[in-house]
Design goal:
Strand content: 35-45%
Radius of gyration: 20 Å
Length: 191
């Protein structure tokens, strides 16, 4: 009697848990699809950005702020300056054109030029930030949390690069607007 009741209770718990997991997967898919659709319909946008780079090995952080501008089909201009008191505040730039990616680093006073095909390897978080990454095809969604009015999704790149293994995104669930991106690279540095 009580043994049978335990099995029925366990079976009910497993069915309920599986149903809850399925509901979470569907909700994650809906949020991600809503965000993907919203960004596919945007012709251009600009935003003020704040960036914190945390180095895993040294546990040091660098704070940057600046502007991001995006215009379809894939033109991107990002200008950021270090905002820490100890730094000079020189402006770094990333410019993406039809076929090139330019990255200027003021410390070296050099602009590096890459093929646009290298954007996935050089700065994959830009593809997420501008809605150019296909979240439903290129990532697997592993977790969801609610933080105030935002839904945080943790996505793992199906084909990780040294620049990005996973990315956490904070999205307004009802609008699909991306509010925050936090990527983690192969060395566990957080950007």
């Amino acid at each position: 009697g009580s043994c049978m009741l335990r099995y029925i209770s366990l079976a009910f718990l497993l069915i309920f848990s599986a149903g809850q997991c399925r509901a979470d997967v569907l909700e994650n898919f809906d949020i991600t699809a809503r965000m993907q659709e919203r960004y596919s319909n945007i012709a251009d946008f600009s935003a003020e950005i704040t960036q914190v780079l945390t180095h895993a090995e040294s546990q040091t952080s660098e704070h940057r702020s600046g502007k991001l501008a995006f215009k379809k089909p894939g033109f991107i201009n990002i200008e950021t300056s270090v905002t820490d008191d100890s730094e000079t505040g020189d402006t770094s730039r990333i410019i993406v054109t039809d076929d090139l990616v330019w990255i200027y680093t003021p410390e070296e006073k050099i602009a590096y030029k890459y093929s646009k095909d290298m954007l996935r390897d050089v700065s994959p978080s830009l593809l997420v930030l501008t809605g150019q990454a296909n979240l439903l095809e290129n990532f697997s969604i592993e977790g969801q949390e609610t933080e105030g009015a935002l839904t945080k999704l943790t996505l793992y790149l199906n084909e990780p690069t040294t620049q990005m293994v996973k990315v956490a995104i904070w999205v307004e669930a009802n609008t699909g607007i991306l509010r925050r991106v936090q990527s983690t690279d192969f060395y566990e540095n957080i950007k």
